[in-house]
TrEMBL record:
Entry protein name: SAM-dependent MidA family methyltransferase
A GO term for molecular function: methyltransferase activity
Top-level lineage group: Bacteria
UniProt keyword annotation of Transmembrane present: yes
GO biological process, one term: methylation
Keywords for this protein: Membrane, Methyltransferase, Transferase, Transmembrane, Transmembrane helix
Keyword Manganese (UniProt): no
Membrane-spanning intervals of the chain: 241-263
InterPro entries linked to this entry: NDUFAF7, NDUFAF7_sf, SAM-dependent_MTases_sf
One Pfam family from the record: Methyltransf_28
Gene3D superfamilies xrefs: 3.40.50.12710
Organism: Dyella japonica
Length: 397
């Protein structure tokens, strides 16, 4: 597997070795490490995790490309769908973006809000990575007029005070540290990371604790079927607590999650018997999460049924669920594209716009693989575009 991946340079190897040393020390001191904890360390360990270090993650020079990196069409559609909510809630309405990435979404979204004449009181970016926060700040300070940049504030934890507005998260749930479980003769086991006799990382299965076992049994009850022996997949037993933590103070407004995933009955198909966990390194996907820790993005698809349940537990109602293509088209993609295409300065720009639309909407690109889930709370009327409401496939959950 690893032979087909780009060979890390000396600096990358040294960085991975530093994280590996810390992982070895922690395992030696505390014993087998649940995979979810290993994933958390690999992605978020201060100064060493994938999202916490200085390496470029997004775009052609990184390891993957997200929708905002393609251009501004995606963000402009999101703003088309959400600015009426900001407008309805009035001058106290805020916009909170979870995980700001390169800052591309915030730049395009703030410009779109300004063009629509309704700018949120505050544009919050909840970004735990100090490195990414600095990159975002530099980008937005250079790209936005000072009066627009003044709306932006960075957070390192969710708001504690009650607030109203819109919470937006693109490709965030897939990066939550996931639990890996496997069935053995009717019992639930959990995947752990340990050291072999030569100090190398390896994965082993150990009996699951009550939280993990209970979460798996709940999925079985919902599916009305038991997982067969040997079936391995992912589950997020902490998801309800996470939603409450990041959105508990949102008293009125909208939450929007965009990510790749499935409804539960598709997530746990019999043939998907090794789960959805993937690692990404320089635009190449592979299935070894132990390969050079800290240099790979680790990710698992989203069980949108579980996300809906978690939102309900936190006091939100599901306001819509649909493929990304239907959401973008319902949010005015065609009109935005046409206006941009007609005003484009050259053929290269027009080609780029056409490529954006293809990647965002074609079924074999992002159009069907990515899903959009909307939640609402504290609003008598939810002013979403009529075409978005009509595209709702919530009955599939």
């Amino acid at each position: 597997m690893s032979s087909r991946l780009p060979d890390p340079g000396a600096d990358e190897r040294a960085h991975s070795d530093r994280l590996l040393t810390r992982l070895r020390e922690e395992i030696a001191a505390h014993g087998p490490m649940p995979f979810s904890q290993y994933m958390e360390r690999c992605l978020y360990a201060p100064g060493l995790g994938y999202y916490s270090a200085g390496k470029t993650k997004f775009g052609e020079a990184g390891d993957f490309i997200t929708a905002p990196e393609l251009g501004d069409l995606f963000a402009r559609c999101v703003v088309n769908a959400t600015y009426p909510v900001i407008e309805m809630l009035g001058e106290s309405a805020d916009f909170l973006e979870l995980g700001g990435g390169s800052g591309a979404f915030a730049e395009a979204a703030l410009k779109a809000f300004a063009a629509n004449g309704t700018v949120p009181r505050r544009y919050y970016i909840l970004e735990p990575s100090a490195d990414l926060r600095e990159r975002q700040r530099d980008r937005l300070a250079a790209a936005l007029p000072s009066e627009l940049f003044a709306h932006v504030l960075w957070l390192d934890r969710p708001p504690e005070q009650d607030w109203q507005g819109v919470l937006f998260a693109n490709e965030v749930i897939d990066a939550l540290p996931t639990t890996r479980f496997v069935m053995r003769d009717g019992e639930v086991y959990e995947e752990h990371v340990v050291l072999d006799g030569e100090g190398r990382l390896m994965r082993v299965d150990r009996p699951a604790d009550a939280l993990v076992s209970g979460a798996v049994r709940q999925v079985e009850r919902d599916l009305e079927a038991e997982f067969p022996s040997g079936y391995r997949s992912e589950i997020l037993p902490q998801l309800p607590y996470w939603i409450q933590a990041i959105a508990g103070s949102l008293t009125a407004g909208l939450m929007m999650f965009i990510d790749y995933g499935y409804v539960r009955r598709e997530y746990y198909l019999p043939e998907r018997n090794d789960g959805t966990l993937r690692a990404y390194h320089r635009h190449r996907s592979h299935n070894d999460p132990l390969y050079f820790p800290g240099l790979n993005d680790l990710t698992a698809s989203v069980d949108f049924t579980a996300l809906a349940e978690a939102g309900n537990v936190a006091g939100f109602g599901v306001a819509g669920y649909m493929p990304q293509a239907q959401f973008l088209l319902g949010s005015g993609l065609q009109d935005i594209f046409t206006a941009s295409y007609e005003s484009a300065a050259d053929e290269a720009t027009r080609y780029d716009l056409a490529q954006q639309v293809k990647k965002l909407t074609l079924p074999d690109q992002m159009g069907e693989r990515f899903q959009v889930m909307l939640f609402a709370r504290g609003m008598d009327v939810l002013p979403l575009p009529a075409d978005v409401l009509e595209a709702d496939r919530g009955d599939r959950l």
